[in-house]
Amino acid sequence: MTFINYAAREINCKIVYYGPGLCGKTTNLQYIYDRTNPSAKGKLISLATETDRTLFFDFLPLDLGTVRGFKTRFHLYTVPGQVFYDASRKLILKGVDGVVFVADSQDARMDANVESLQNLEKNLKEHGFDLTTIPYVLQLNKRDLPTALPADELYRQLNYKGEPTFEATAPTGVGVFDTLKAVAKQVLMELRKK
Amino acid sequence: MSDFVLFDEEFQQIKEVIGRLKMDAQAKVVFIVDKNGQQIAAQGDLESLDTTSLASLTAGNVAATDGLAKLIGEKEFPVLFHEGERDNVYISIVGQRVILVVIFDERSSLGLVRLRVRKATQDLERIFDAIQKKVEEEKERRHEGIDSPFAEITDDDIDSLFRE
């Protein structure tokens, strides 16, 4: 749910990074945070456990610049990927404008990817959203690992509706900004329709 | 789900109400956040505060507490109160849609804040009802062919946001 503030001339949008545990959602945000000009970002907040697993969410506010006289602000969130945090995951999807699904390319994580994607579909539905219509991007992460499956095989299994798909290695930033850009673009395009 | 739109007229009214609440309740900071974590308006000593983070964490807090309420069969917990050594935070839900946050210290008291919040909540509910009505009217007008300011966003506009 985009928040259009005519008083402050701002558009605020919410993007959620979804995916199975340890797929690299937080790493995506960390890289964006590290590489963004300090004037364009707020604090990166991580509600994590002592072992650095996401407990509730990570949050990063970003100012992308001005479109048609309106400042565009994106609020990036991650969900906790571990299966048993489903109640928290559901809460974070509230009012979402765009979703990035971060898939773990490793063969051993394929079932977790599929399960998480189904979980996303279900949780979106509970908030009245539909994965077939919401702005959505697929990221195939961990492409640098020797255990990574071929990208076309992952695409075949995980691509949902022909959404833009990017290969990524989040710690070094490969594909990270391309993913963000693709989802932000779709979200802004949605505004045009409204 | 419809977007949340804030117009200048109502923004000024909201600021007035929370400014008055800040004075009446002798609070340090009063702010309003929507349930998705977007800050709507704030009054008080904001310089030392990261209001964007505060807004997002408040909404997360309320969302988690709402989840808890539902689990035990309650509709919601309309008030949350956090007591610190110096500062306290009083959080309440306005019109089931937005969150009102009051930060206060020993110069005020929970009783006073609670009392003043009750009055301000009524005023805020009226304003948010008016916003809702206005958004719906605006939507109808658009169906009659009035363009939204974003109707003409181009690919170039969007690409320019990402140029290094």
What are the SSEs and their pairings?
The complex is a heterodimer of chains A (194) and B (164).
Chain A: E1 3-5, E2 10-18, H1 25-34, E3 45-48, E4 54-67, E5 70-78, H2 86-92, E6 98-104, H3 110-126, E7 136-141, H4 151-158, E8 165-167, H5 176-193
Chain B: E1 4-6, H1 8-24, E2 29-34, E3 39-44, H2 51-71, E4 79-83, E5 88-94, E6 98-104, H3 110-143, H4 155-161
Antiparallel strand pairs in B: 2-3, 2-6, 4-5, 5-6
Helix pairs in contact in B: 1-3
Q: What report would you give on this structure?
A:
The complex is a heterodimer of chains A (194) and B (164). In chain A, strands 1, 2, 3, 4, 5, 6, 7 and 8 form an eight-stranded mixed beta sheet that branches. The radius of gyration of chain A is 16 Å and the shape is globular. Chain A has helices at 25-34, 86-92, 110-126, 151-158, 176-193; strands at 3-5, 10-18, 45-48, 54-67, 70-78, 98-104, 136-141, 165-167. Helices cover 31% and strands 28% of the residues of chain A. Chain A is of the alpha/beta class and 194 residues long. Chain A has a single domain, classed as P-loop containing nucleotide triphosphate hydrolases (Rossmann fold). Chain B has 164 residues and is of the alpha+beta class. Chain A binds chain B through residues 1-8, 11-12, 14, 42-43, 45, 47, 56-57, 59, 61, 64-65, 67-70, 72, 75, 87-88, 90-92, 94-95, 127-129, 177, 181, 184-185, 188-189, 191-192, 194, and chain B through 1-8, 10-12, 34-38, 40, 50, 52-53, 56-57, 60, 63-64, 66-67, 148-153, 155, 157-158, 160-162. Strand 1 (3-5) of chain A pairs parallel with strand 1 (4-6) of chain B, so a sheet runs across the interface.
Order of helices and strands of chain B: EHEEHEEEHH
CATH topology-level fold name of chain A: Rossmann fold
The termini of chain A sit apart by 12 Å
Question: Per DSSP, what share of the residues of chain B sits in E-state strands of 2 or more residues?
Answer: 15-25%
Radius of gyration of chain B: 18 Å
Name given to the CATH homologous superfamily of chain B: Dynein light chain 2a, cytoplasmic
Indicate the overall shape of chain A.
globular
Low-confidence stretches of chain A: none
What is the helix tally of chain B?
Answer: 4
The coarse overall form of chain B would be: globular
Please identify, by name, the CATH architecture of chain A: 3-Layer(aba) Sandwich
CATH architecture classification of chain B: 2-Layer Sandwich
Q: Can you give the mean pLDDT of chain A?
A: 94
For the secondary structure, the number of strands of chain B is 6
Total number of strands of chain A = 8
Query: Biggest interface and which pair forms it?
Result: A-B, 46 and 39 residues
* Gyration radius of chain A, in Å: 16 Å
CATH first level of chain B? Alpha Beta
Strand order of the main beta sheet of chain B, please?
3-2-6-5-4
Binned, the helix content of chain B reads: 40-55%
